[in-house]
């Protein structure tokens, strides 16, 4: 029960202060390690780069788990309370509940005020696509997609691994996620070297993404019953199962398709990255035109979804124990 209490306190800490820039963040150090090793190892033939990519993935993930476990064990040996406080802080750094909600609102506020340049600028801080020419509907779509997808990466998946293995395993997951974001690209530089990192990220997110979609659906039902949102939950679960595999990511399509169905909007379509057009399969139905109100609705779904996810994980943890 101590671990569940620590995770609950970590959630509260993240909701209260998020990730203060004045404090060191483990992901920053993980990113520096990946960058250093990538510069040293990402060279040679394709087969050599692929093998070194597997070595990079193993080194970073196992290293992060081992170091965090050892540090916590040492601090606990010195003083139990010191170890608990350290684990609480480490757990909080793996979560991005406040950060994700704030990022969505940072786009929504100028958009609601008709400030398209301000909304585009705020959006450019959280997405990789070109934002300079986007209108309200496309800004909204990009924000909704980002909040939905990152509900898994930034909230539910870290909670999933934290419940299983505490802060060390949650940090190992963040290492996997960071590896994918830095080297998991299908381009000339990273296609071979980042292969292992991308595949491990797919594996790590497989179950959390699908559980999250179910929790979002249950959250949609609760919000609809409370009459706070006219969410279209009937048939959303079946439609999500059919549509999610269309997404180029084996996992991102699940929360995105579920949010699209619950809101009655269509996500996906054309995106532009550094001038290159990328076509994404559409998810959901355009029953309502995308507008700024859908950003707030997505943030609300995100909160209800992770609350249900954490409740489910807690029940499973107690049942197994």
TrEMBL record:
Q: Name one GO molecular function term.
A: threonine-phosphate decarboxylase activity
Q: Which domain of life is it from?
A: Bacteria
Q: Name one Pfam family in it.
A: CobD_Cbib
What is the annotated localization of this protein?
Answer: Cell membrane
Keywords, alphabetical? Cell membrane, Cobalamin biosynthesis, Ligase, Membrane, Transmembrane, Transmembrane helix
Its function, per the record, reads: Converts cobyric acid to cobinamide by the addition of aminopropanol on the F carboxylic group.
| Designated name of the protein | Cobalamin biosynthesis protein CobD
| Organism (species) | Halomonas citrativorans
What is the primary gene name for this protein? Answer: cobD
């Amino acid at each position: 029960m101590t671990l569940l209490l620590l995770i609950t306190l970590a959630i509260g800490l993240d909701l209260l202060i998020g990730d203060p820039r004045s404090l060191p963040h483990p992901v920053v150090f993980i990113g520096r390690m990946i960058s250093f090793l990538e510069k040293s190892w990402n060279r040679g033939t394709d087969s050599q780069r692929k093998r070194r990519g597997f070595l990079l993935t193993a080194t970073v993930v196992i290293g992060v788990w081992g170091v965090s476990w050892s540090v916590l064990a040492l601090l606990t040996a010195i003083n139990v309370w010191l170890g608990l406080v350290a684990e609480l802080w480490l757990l909080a750094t793996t979560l991005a509940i406040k950060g994700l909600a704030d990022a969505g609102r940072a786009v929504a506020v100028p958009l609601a005020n008709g400030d398209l340049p301000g909304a585009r600028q705020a959006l450019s801080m959280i997405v990789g696509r070109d934002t300079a020419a986007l209108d309200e509907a496309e800004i909204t779509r990009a924000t909704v997609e980002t909040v939905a997808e990152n509900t898994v990466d930034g909230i539910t998946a870290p909670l999933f691994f934290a419940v299983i293995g505490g802060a060390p395993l949650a940090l190992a997951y963040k290492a996997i996620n960071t590896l994918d974001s830095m080297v998991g690209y299908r381009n000339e530089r990273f296609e071979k070297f980042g292969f292992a990192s991308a595949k491990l990220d797919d594996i790590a997110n497989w179950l959390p993404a699908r559980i999250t979609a179910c929790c979002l659906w249950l959250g949609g039902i609760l919000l609809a019953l409370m009459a706070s949102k006219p969410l279209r939950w009937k048939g959303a679960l079946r439609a999500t199962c059919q549509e999610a595999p269309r997404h180029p990511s084996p996992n991102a399509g699940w929360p995105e398709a579920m949010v699209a169905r619950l809101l009655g909007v269509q996500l996906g379509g054309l995106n532009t990255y550094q001038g290159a057009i990328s076509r994404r399969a559409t998810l959901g139905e355009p029953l309502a035109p995308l507008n700024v109100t859908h950003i707030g609705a997505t943030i609300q779904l995100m909160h209800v979804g992770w609350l249900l996810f954490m409740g489910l994980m807690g029940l499973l943890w107690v049942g197994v124990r």
